[in-house]
Each structure stands twice: as structure tokens, then as C-alpha cells.
Amino acid sequence: MSGHESPAARALAPVATPVARSAQSAHAARPVSAGEAARLALLRDLQLAFRKRSQLAQPLAFFAMVTLLFPLAISPELSRLRELAPGVLWVGALLASLLALEFLFRDDAYDGTLEQYALSGQSLTALMFAKTLAHWLLTGLPLALMAPLAALSLGVAPAALPGIIVAVAVGSVTLSLIGSIGAALTLGIKRSGALLSLLTLPLSLPVLIFGARATQLAIHGAPFLAPLELLGALAVLGITLAPLAAAAAVRISLE
Amino acid sequence: MTWTWFHRLASPPYVYALAARLTPWFAWPAGLCILAGLWGGLVLAPPDYQQGDGFRILYVHAPSAWMSLMVYTTMAIAAAIGLVWRMKVAHAVAASCAPIGASFTFAALVTGALWGEPMWGTYWEWDPRLTSELVLLFLYLGYMGLRAGIEDPQRADRASAVLAVVGVVNVPIIHYSVTWWNSLHQAPSVMRLAKPAMPLAMLAPLLLMLLGFTLLFVALLLTRLRGEVLARERAASWIREVVSA
Amino acid sequence: MEEATRTVPAEPLEVENLQLWRGERHVLRGVHFALARGACLEVCGANGSGKTTLLRTLCGLIYPEEGRVLWNGENVQRDLRAFHAELAYLGHDPPLKSDLTARENLHYWIGIRQQLTAEDLTAALARVGALPFCERQVRTLSAGQRRRVALAGIALLAVPLWLLDEPTTNLDAEGRDLVADLICEQLARGGMVVAAVHHGLPPSVRNVTRLELAA
User: Fold this and answer.
1) Which domains does chain C have, with CATH numbers?
2) Which residue segment(s) compose the domain that B119 sits in?
3) What letters, b where the CB count within 10 A reaches 16 and e where it falls short, cover B181-192?
4) Cβ separation of B146 and A185 shorter than 8 Å?
């Protein structure tokens, strides 16, 4: 069904028209680089998170709770807990970071700002990377700093702690990146928590395997560079590919 | 010139008719190959010097495992084609692959467990291959779950396509990490599922089964595809002509 | 200022025979129009007739089954980002974060697209009458106030094409006049406006073509 056009709105053939920039706009549009746009997106998410400080603590509290569950469920013997510590720490970190994923895109999708990102003329991939980086700074990094406390409560020697911090810090980068893909894919699905876990956990298994191994070696005082390097490689791969996939998924959710 | 067949493949009525014509060409040879392979493997092949007759479940287990991976790759390729060229039929192919692949994966896991019992004394060992199969099953379930969770059919197609592509990139990584993990904790007495060079009498039926399973997959895919196309195009006019014919 | 002369179509925005299905509903059935500089297109129709869908298809967010959207003679799908840099889209709900102030919202929302100074922000907020409440968090603002802030954002963007979905929602008579003024200014600059409206734009807007969408 076509519209009713008035003669003013329809010309019969293209006509050469001088484009006078002076008549275009009240103020010239000075463009913004992709890096500057990403920086603004990062700052915005950080500023928003600090306006709701109470929400920041939730994944950390969850991580602490999970750590508490194991001694209660298994045994208070520190020697036994020390053996389990790598697994407990990493399963806890994995689940806590899953919990935090909901905050990554949900609000933006709901209030229309995600749509504006897609329409901004800036690289959506760069903006997704900025958002995921903000997410890691607000979740993964604090988890990495909290992990030593959990480890100590499980009988881990203090000498192992720096290794644990590094391993969780690097591993959580990949977890945030993988999670961003799942979060973008499940946008708009009601009660998507279980589905998000089903999508994200299988993809996060390599991080779990290498991270737990690095932690285990650190606890025994052995050199843990090999699994740490593998963790780093996963992080690099994630940084390169995940924001692309997340941007594609976001665009699909806006269709 | 070569693109005309590609563009014809994008037309649902053409694909529907083509699938109907091709199915028997795959179904019958599949049945023959599988029967021949089963006969060769269960009856003709000599018993293994180490495992006796118990190894024969390999003739179902190995092709199932192989197909589970091949179907996932096919699904991912179809999904990628659907994403890039926006072909509805490619998305229909990917959707049809998923339950078939999940079934193969489940079969591989069950036969693996059944094999494990007489061989290892336990139904489940965290063998790297079986563990990878289990993860693959979750990847399939996640794909099907995402499709089911999104209401808009076009969005479901495209979102699950992204997931399939991300998954297929991750499958080698996951497999590598699981193998690496297993090698750290390997007890020396655990039976390996991979066997060294097999004598021809054992190998031939296995290859036959593999071929048979592949043909079976194509036959099942074509059948499911017709169902998918029917469901997706149910409002279109060409459906009425086909159904009344 | 320089004058750049190049051959561009007299109608930068052309839409050819858009066909779009949502599931089984045939929402857009052969939408076809061209929009010249300084012209405004008013998209009318009942609820559910596809006004929002049409606007989002024009943006390139939705990909039509058939037909194309042309910007300066080129299919917008070929370079969506360049097209987006030349348009401003305002959806049903103002795209504002409720935990940020109006000024902060604009700083991020528009700042991602073009360089802004504090004076630019103040001027835009004053233009829409939002200065009195620009330092309050958006969660404390009424729906009409939020819409004014959103309009300030649109006014800040120096882009040739505006796509507005129900721009006068929640606004009082003064607010509706503001929308009309902003649209007139945009048209006077040689820009184009496509607006989906329920009851029609205020009469002060000239050079308006109407496009009716049947439900």
C-alpha cells in the first residue's frame, strides 16, 4: 500500500543539487573516534554501577556464601579442604560471575539505550568490549581480590595467594567475555537464568580446567606458568572474538 | 551460472520437493550399509584379543560419536550460511540437524557407558572422549533451548545461528582442554577407547557402519527438513497445492 | 563555510516497496515513498498498523524481506554505520538511564556520537525548557520531563534525518509546540523528519506528506 504523495515530495528524476554545508545545521557535528566512544561507554557503566553500590556487592556475597557451603557440607578439616580448594574457588567464581551477567545488558535493553548504541554510528563491537570491560572491573576483578580470603578459609597457605589472584583475574576476563555472548543472546527472554547458565557453562569449561589447575599448582608451591599462559591465551582469543559475537547477538535482539 | 543452483536452494518449495525425491536414495543405502556393517561387526569380525566380544559395541559407539560431531559442524555451517545470506532454508536445515545430532550424542554416551561396564567395571569413567561427548550434548541442549526460548521465529533462527557458530569454534578448545585435564589425572589401568591399527576384518565393518550412519543422517535430515519447511511456510500458498496433491 | 557540490538525489531518503513479515503477520505491505530535503513525512495508522516497525526498518534495525531503503541513492544496508551517523532515532520511550541526571545522560548518549561542550548541553537543555530539572536523576522526573530531555538530545544531534516515534507523547500543549518548533527548525536547515503520530502533527509544521498504514 503506497502513500499519498504531494507533488512537493516527489521529483521524477535525480537532480544535481549543491549541498551547502553552511545551511546544514546550527553547529557542525565534530565526530568522535571509536576509542573515545568506547571510553565514554566504559565510564558510563562504571558511573551507573557506583550509583547502585549495593548491587555491586551481591556477586561477592554469593561467592562468599558458596565458599561457606563446602566446609559445612563436607568437613571442617583444613587438610581435606585444601585439596578441594581449587575446585571450590573456581566453581564459586564461575557461578558468581554467572549471577552478575544479568546486569550486563538487561537494563540497557529495557530503557532503550542499547538500541541507541546500535544506532550511534559507532562500532558496536567496540562498545560491547567497553561494556564487558566495565563488567569485569566491577565483578571479575573484585572476585579475584576476594579469592584469597576464601582460599585462606579453606586452609591454603599465604604463599599461594598471589598466584590465586592472578589466575582468577585472568580467568574471569574470559568468563565475562563468554558471558557477554550468552547475555546478549538471551536478551528479552523471560526468566532466562537457567538458559543463560546452560549456554555459558559449557563454553566456560576450559577456563575452569586451566584455572583450577593453575590454582592447584600454586597451592602446592609448584610453578603454574603453563596453565596460566593457557588462561591468558583464552583471554586473548576471547577479547578478539567475543565482542564481535556479542554485537551480532545484540543486533539480532533488536530486530 | 553456478549461483543459480544456490539460489534455487533458497526456495522452500524447491527444497521441499528435492528433499522428498532424494530421501529414498539415502534411506535405502543407509539401511543396507548398516545391516551389512552390523553383520560384519557382530558376526564376521574376530573377537578382540583383549576384550573378547565386548568390543563389538564399538560398531555403534564410534559411528555415533563421529556423527554427533559431524552433525554439529553441519548445523554450524548451515547456520552460518543462514546468517550471512539470510536464507530461511539454511536456518531450517540447522534446526533439523539439532535433534538428530543430540540423539547421536546421547547414543554415543549410552553405548559408551554400556561398553564401560564390562571393560572398566563402571558405567561412567571421566574418559576425555566421553566427557567431551557430554559437553557436546549440553551444547546441543543449549542450542535447542535457545530456539525454544525465543518467540519470534526469525530472531530464534538468527540468535541460535550465532550460538552454533560460537559453539563450533569452542568445540576444539573444549576437547583440547578436557584431554589436557584428563592427562593430568590419568590412572594407568584405564582402558582407552581409541585403538591402535585394526585388522581389516574389524575395520571394514566399522567403515561400513560409519557410511551407513552418515547416509542415515542425511535421510533423517531430509525428512525433518520437509517437516520444518512445512511448519515454517504453513501460511504460504504453495503448501495448499502440495498437501492437496 | 565551504560549499560542496556533488550530485545527490533530490530526495535523499527513498523507500522502495518494503515488504516485511513479523512471524505470520504481513506488517509492511509495499511501503513506497521518497522524501526531499526540508520535507516531513507523517506516518499515521492505528495501533498495531506497523508505524514503529516501519521506523525501525528505515533505521536499518530490521531487515525487510523485500524492498530497500536508499540513502543518497545507496542501499543503507551496505554501510549501516555511515547511515546511522546521519540519523537520529527517538523511540517510544526516552533512552535515558534513570540513575543518571539529565545532563549526564545527554553527555553520554550524544557524546558518543559527537564532541560536546558543557555550553552545548546547557543550550540544548534550555531550548527544551529542561534547565530547571537537569541536575536531578531521571528517575525523579515525570514522563513529560523525560521526553523533553530526550528532545534536547535530538536537537543536539546535527544530523539530516530524524526518525521520531510518537514524539508528542506525554507532552502538554506547550511541549507539543516545542516539538513542532524543533521539527520546523530541522526542516528549515534542509533536514528531513519522519514522524509516526497518532493524531497528526501540530499544524505549524509545513511541507508535510502523510503516509497511511492500514492495520
Assistant:
1) 7-86+160-215 (3.40.50.300), 96-158 (no CATH)
2) 56-186+198-230
3) bbeeeeeeeeee
4) yes
- pLDDT for position B195: 53
Measured CA to CA, the distance from residue B215 to residue B222 in angstroms comes to 11
Q: Where do we find the cell 535523499?
A: C12
Q: How many CB pairs under 8 A join A and C?
A: 182
Residue of A nearest to C15 (CA): A2
pLDDT, tens digit, for every residue of B106-151?
999 999 988 888 777 787 878 888 899 999 999 999 999 999 999 8
Q: Tell if the CB–CB gap between A186 and B178 is shorter than 8 Å.
A: no
In a domain, B144, yes or no: yes
Q: How far is C23 from chain B (nearest CA, A)?
A: 6
- Angle between helices A124-135 and A34-51 in degrees, nearest 10: 30
CB count in 10 Å sphere of residue C173: 9
Residues A195-220 have pLDDT tens digits of 999 999 999 999 999 999 999 999 99
SS3 call for B185: coil
Partner B contacted by A138 (CB < 8 A): no
Nearest Cα of chain A lies from the Cα of C158 at a distance, in angstroms, of: 6
The pLDDT, as a whole number, for residue A237 is: 96
Q: Which residues of C touch B154 (CB under 8 A)?
A: 23
Q: Who among C10, C87, C113 is closest to A17 (CB)?
A: C10
User: How many structural domains is chain B composed of?
Assistant: 1
The ipTM is 0.92
pLDDT at C99: 94
Residue at B178 is within a domain? yes
Question: Is B122 in contact with B190 (CB distance < 8 Å)?
Answer: no
Which chain B residues are closer than 8 Å to A209 by Cβ?
177-178, 180-181
Contact A112, C89 (CB under 8 A): no
3-state helix, strand, coil in chain C (%, to 5): 35, 30, 40
Question: Cβ B86–C63 below 8 Å, yes or no?
Answer: yes
Contact yes or no for A2 and C32 at CB 8 A: yes
Hey, is C164 helix, strand or coil? strand
